[in-house]
Each structure stands twice: as C-alpha cells, then as structure tokens.
Design brief:
Keywords: Amino-acid biosynthesis, Cytoplasm, Diaminopimelate biosynthesis, Lysine biosynthesis, NAD, NADP, Oxidoreductase. By secondary structure, this protein is of the alpha/beta class. The protein has six helices and eleven strands. It has a six-stranded parallel beta sheet with strand order 2-1-3-4-5-11, with helices on both faces. A five-stranded mixed beta sheet has the order 7-8-6-9-10. Bound molecules: nicotinamide-adenine-dinucleotide.
Length: 250
C-alpha cells in the first residue's frame, strides 16, 4: 500500500477550511499535518506535500506563491483569481518545475456537471438566464460559478452563431435585469438558510429547460476537494477547473 499523503490547510479556521480538515482527517490515505490561518507563519507548511487553500481573495495569491516556492502542490478554492493573478502565478510556476496548482471555482461534482450540461444545451435555445443563490455572508457577486457558467454558455452560443438573448427592456434604472456576463443575464440572490445553489433557465418556443444544482451543505464540496488533493501532484503547472481532473475536459 502506498504511503499516506501529508496535507496542510490554509484558512483552516474558516467555514470551508474547517470542513476540509475534517475530510482529510477522515480519509485513510491522507494525513493532516498543518492548520494555518491569518497571522500564522506558513514556514515549511508543516512538511505537507499538498496544501488546500480556502482563505480570502486578497490573501490567496501570496499564500499560493509561498507554497509553490516551497515546492508544495496546492488545491485552491478561494475566489477572486482573475487573469492578472493567474498570469502572475503561471510566472511563479514556470520557475518551479513539477509543482502543480489546481484552482477550482466550484468543487461540487454536480455543479461541474451543471456547467457542462448548460454548455451542451446552450446552442439549442434562444434565451438563457443564470440565477445563483447563496447564503448572505457571501461577499462577492455574481458567484465565480455563475460567471463561469455564463462565459461557457456565451462561448457555445457564439460558436453556434446564435445572437444576443432577446430582451425588449429599454428602461432598467435599478438593474432589475441583473448583471451581464459575456452578454448572458446573471442574477444573484442572497438568502438566510441557503448554502450554494444555481439555476440555468433555457427558453425556446413553447418550452423551457431548467438545470438546477443545490449544495445543501459544505460537505458537498469535499469529494471534489479530496479528488483534487489526490490528483494535483500528477498535473504540474496550473489547472483551472476540477473538470480537467474528472475526464470532462474535451
Ligand atoms: P470564511 O470567511 O469562513 O474563511 C476564510 C478563512 O480565511 C478565515 O478563517 C480567515 O481568518 C482566513 N484568512 C484570512 N486571511 C488569511 C490569510 N492571510 N492567510 C490565511 N488565512 C486567512 O470563508 P469560507 O466560507 O470558508 O470561504 C473561503 C473562500 O472559499 C471564499 O473565497 C469562498 O468564496 C470560497 N469558496 C469556494 C468554494 C469552491 O467550491 N471553490 C466553495 C465555497 C467557498
């Protein structure tokens, strides 16, 4: 039997980080060797081979850079990784051959499948809108998953030669029609009692297809996080999206 993989968690005192610590401790093939949070010296990361990073958008790039510079693979769930941040990380990785970083906007397997199904369905429908619903402590809107879903849908529509979504609205002073991500309307709901949910509404003549995914609990993200931990060492360089580790990337 192969040796247990040593794992540390950054953001370990947070909601996701605490759940990851529990999941790692519950996995036979993984050993939790470090819990780090704001103000802690990351040092040698407790001797970890893989770090899981769930902190805050402003702290995540420096945390991930530290891990890469230590030669440690990283699985990142923190949001806020825009193109500039990804570019800078690619630069750091180019100096550290063999180190893998996975950044996944969503670790829930069902959410990844929903994005794939939305992408597949997009070319068959004239209208499409994305509605994401989250707990009221979420600080960013729209969610990374909703933005990514909209981008994938927009790309599929463009490839199929479908024009703008039909919408006669000419007056919307308060933004009631939602945000636009690559031309796709995206609506954000923040409601006590919710965790993370999303609907994609696809409308055609006389019909509607609804794709919906619900994360009822943060445990829903753990199978994806652990799959990332187990695979990241075999994927040097930067990977964005867990779908690439699940055989869904073609
Ligand atoms: P949280 O606020 O509960 O936890 C964040 C933790 O990070 C806190 O314990 C905080 O003290 C810590 N932190 C702050 N600055 C730090 C620093 N410099 N170094 C180390 N730790 C630091 O938030 P959460 O709900 O656990 O979410 C964390 C992140 O994960 C958010 O960006 C959220 O959007 C994202 N998220 C991603 C997924 C996914 O599937 N990818 C799922 C849920 C949440």
């Amino acid at each position: 039997m192969s040796e247990s993989t040593r794992v540390a968690v950054i953001g370990a005192a947070g909601r996701m980080g605490a759940e990851v610590c529990r999941a790692v401790e519950g996995a036979d093939d993984l050993t939790l060797v470090g819990r780090f949070d704001q103000g802690d010296d990351l040092g040698d990361l407790g001797g970890a081979q893989v770090v899981v990073e769930f902190s805050v958008p402003d702290a995540s790039p420096a945390n991930v850079r530290h891990c890469v510079e230590q030669g440690v693979h990283v699985v990142v769930g923190t949001t806020g990784w825009d193109e500039a941040r990804l570019g800078s990380l690619r630069g750091t990785l180019s100096d550290h051959d063999g180190v893998g970083v996975l950044i996944a906007p969503n670790f829930a397997i069902g959410a990844i499948l929903m994005m794939r199904f939305a992408q597949e369905a997009a070319r068959f429908y004239e209208s499409v809108e994305v509605i994401e619903l989250h707990h009221p402590a979420k600080v960013d809107a729209p969610s990374g998953t909703a933005a990514r879903t909209a981008s994938l849908i927009a790309a599929a529509r463009a490839e199929a030669g479908i024009g703008d979504v039909p919408d006669a609205t000419t007056q919307d002073p308060d933004g009631a029609r939602g945000a636009r991500v690559d031309g796709i309307p995206v609506h954000s709901v923040r409601l006590r009692g919710l965790v993370a949910h999303q609907e994609v509404l696809l409308g055609g003549v006389g019909e509607m297809l609804t794709l919906r995914h619900d994360s009822f609990d943060r445990t829903s993200f753990m199978p994806g996080v652990l799959a990332g931990v187990r695979a990241v060492g075999d994927h040097p360089g930067l990977t964005v999206g867990l779908e690439h580790f699940l055989g869904l990337d073609d």
